[in-house]
Write a structure and sequence with these properties.
Blueprint lengths: L1 E5 L9 E7 L6 E2 L4 E6 L4 E5 L4 E6 L6 E3 L3 E6 L8 E3 L2 E3 L14 H10 L17 H11 L23 H16 L2 E9 L1 H7 L7 H14 L5 E3 L4 E3 L5 E3 L1 E3 L2 E3 L2 E2 L7 H16 L13 E4 L19 E5 L3 E7 L3 E15 L5 H15 L9
Parallel strand pairs: 14-18, 18-19
Antiparallel strand pairs: 1-8, 2-4, 2-7, 3-6, 4-5, 6-8, 9-10, 11-21, 12-13, 14-17, 15-16, 19-21, 20-21
């Protein structure tokens, strides 16, 4: 009995997905709920679990190919077929012979990439089933050889000191989103400086980062200035009643924005646990599509890498994003007369000037600064 593996519906607005990597080879045994393949959409990269226990008898869609939702990806046989002849390392293996003479071994995506960079596919070592060449094989070959794109680099102008890194699906998606956001919103950025000394003292002996405090201050400020928690609509500005805060999370090959839902209803400890969990699962590609959708405001903690200032790009269709710089001790003038060492950090708010005016943005940032500098954090653990 065969079980069909199809490209799942990974969110309401997702129409297609890209097979990034098969985690089980053809002929390999897999358990129900074990990760079978890695899929990437314009919103999220995640691992798809197997719906059944059995043998992966056939892979229809190869790595690097993008297909619509509902497309047949592979088949799993509930009992190993008779042609399975040996076991290697505990995994059932079915040998795959070379394609019959005259049969096209390469997917359209592989052929297109090879044509674009002038790659002779007979020179590329295939790592796919039966030695077939995958898109990643071609990308690795290009990176190693430094082959220029035929359409963009004139012959003879390639530098020996350059290495070409072919675009991944993730990088293309990020690039498209960033350009689209810049073309959509009227970006303006305002900067404030906040004193984190009270928070730094409160954190002593507690396993809390600065981020939960920032989330808490932001959600309180949104209640005071709700227009910041809105979106641009065809008929007018849509002010969101719920506060779902997206946390920009850096990955090895890009960026994801998992969402803390109803962040205004949670205390510091719960926020810290939820943010850590979302970040870990984002890096291990275990997030569900729902966990990266529905955000109403975004925070990016660029200070974690030592950055002081940033002008972040708005995460559409939101109208504002807050950047948090590194928290550093600096000499500050207090009460216009005394100099003291304080833990200070810069905050930036990029906002859509179509929706938010400068005075409103500064009012919101003043609220965030005030809540961060308060001295009653014990009450909201």
């Amino acid at each position: 009995m065969a079980t069909d593996i199809i490209m799942p519906q990974l969110g309401e607005s997702i129409a297609e997905g890209t097979v990034v990597k098969w985690l089980v080879p053809v002929g390999g045994m897999i358990e129900k709920d074990q990760s079978l393949l890695e899929v990437e959409t314009e919103k999220v990269a995640l691992e798809i679990p197997s719906p059944a226990t059995g043998l992966l008898s056939e892979i229809v869609v190869r790595e690097g190919e993008t297909v619509p939702v509902g497309t047949l990806l592979a088949r799993i046989e509930s009992t190993p077929p008779s042609e399975v002849i040996n076991r290697v390392g505990g995994t059932v293996v079915r040998p795959m012979g070379p394609a019959p003479e005259g049969e096209d071994r390469h997917s359209p995506a592989v052929r297109q990439l090879a044509k674009e960079y002038g790659v002779d596919l007979s020179q590329v070592t295939g790592t796919g089933a039966g030695g077939r060449v995958t898109k990643k094989d071609v990308q690795d070959f290009i990176a190693q050889s430094g082959a220029p794109a035929k359409e963009t680099t004139p012959v003879g102008e390639q530098s020996m000191g350059e290495t070409l890194l072919p675009f991944t699906q993730t990088r293309r998606t990020i690039a498209d989103r960033m350009v689209k956001s810049r073309q959509t919103s009227a970006h303006v950025t305002t900067f404030f400086e906040a004193d984190f000394s009270g928070i730094a003292k409160f954190r002593e002996g507690r396993s809390l980062t600065y981020l939960p405090f920032v989330i808490r201050a932001v959600t309180r400020a949104i209640r005071d200035v709700p227009i910041v928690n809105s979106a641009w609509g065809e008929q007018g500005i849509i002010v969101k009643k719920d506060i779902h805060v997206g946390i920009a999370t850096a990955l090895e090959d890009g960026l994801l924005v998992p969402v803390v839902r109803h962040a205004d209803r949670k205390g510091l400890t719960q926020l810290a646990k939820e943010v850590a969990d979302l970040a870990e699962r984002a890096r291990s590609k275990k997030l569900s599509p729902e966990e990266v959708q529905g955000g109403t405001f975004t925070i990016t903690n660029h200070g974690g890498f030592g950055s002081l200032f940033s002008t972040p790009i708005i995460h559409q269709p939101q109208v504002a994003i807050l950047g948090v710089g590194a928290i550093q001790k600096r000499a500050m003038v207090l009460n216009n007369e005394a100099i003291a060492i304080r833990s200070m950090g810069y905050l930036s708010l990029s906002f859509d000037h179509r929706v938010i005016d400068g005075a409103t943005a500064d009012q919101f940032m003043g609220k965030v600064k005030g809540y961060l500098e308060q001295s009653h954090w014990e009450q909201i653990l």
